Amino acid sequence: MHQGNWKCGGCGEAITELPFEPRGEAGLMCKACFSKSRGGSSAGGGEKTKHEGDWKCSGCSKAITELPFQPRDTSNLLCLDCFKQSRA
Ligand SMILES: [Zn+2]
Ligand SMILES: [Zn+2]
């Protein structure tokens, strides 16, 4: 178990213990929300899936290991920071 001070992305409740070391706080869920997201029907959609891989940011050349989508074209990928900047 990993101890820490995170916040649930579903209900906002504090999370103090996780079975894994999270990379970021985004998308973290408490046990209740996690089991809810697992147990509920997936018909509604809106579910966040993460795709892991070994890509490179075309903006800053930083390694990208996780994306919220499956990239079709890997030559023009942006890391979260560069993506935010391009949108700003
Ligand atoms: Zn929660
Ligand atoms: Zn970048």
Quick take:
The protein has two helices and four strands; from the N terminus they run ββαββα. The chain is of the alpha+beta class. The longest helix is centred in the middle third of the chain and has 9 residues, at 31-39.
Describe the protein in words.
- This protein has 88 residues and is α+β, with helices and mostly antiparallel strands.
- It is 19% helix and 25% strand.
- It contains two helices and four strands, in the order ββαββα.
- The strands form two sheets. It has a two-stranded antiparallel sheet with strand order 1-2. A two-stranded antiparallel ribbon has the order 3-4.
- A hairpin with a 6-residue loop joins strand 1 (2-7) and strand 2 (14-18).
- The relative contact order is 0.14.
- The mean pLDDT is 85.
